[in-house]
């Protein structure tokens, strides 16, 4: 692929815990989000804007280069984060498992501040019932 290109590929990604159980307690959520952020920062061709969510799902806002295979990136993020959280437990119990599948939506750069704010305030949006269905969807219903 040519290294001479211009791109604006902004993505909103969401995935749930296994059976949408509330596995992301404050401690697990904080550690998981930190792990995901570091993993994304270390990924070539990826710029992370925001990570958020609730006790049963994660939202991520990214800009990626056209060289990034999105499905592969998401699979690696899910697998590595669950492995890391589960390995760091003294009892070696599985504290974090992800549901199969994910949702990914592209959006224009002008919407970047809005998407970041939406992700940052996930708990408030869900408590108030003011979620945006397009950004919460994991399957094509």
List keywords for this structure.
Transposase_17; transposase activity; 141 residues; 5 helices; DNA binding; Transposase_17_sf; Alpha-Beta Plaits
Question: What is the compact description of this entry?
Answer:
This protein is an alpha+beta fold and 141 residues long. The protein has helices at residues 26-41, 70-87, 112-120, 122-128, 133-136, and strands at residues 9-16, 46-54, 57-64, 103-107. A hairpin with a 2-residue loop joins strand 2 (46-54) and strand 3.
Question: What is the assigned CATH homologous superfamily?
Answer: Transposase IS200-like
Can you name the CATH architecture?
2-Layer Sandwich
- Fraction in beta strands: 15-25%
Q: Spans with pLDDT under 50 lasting ≥5 residues?
A: none
Rg calc? 15 Å
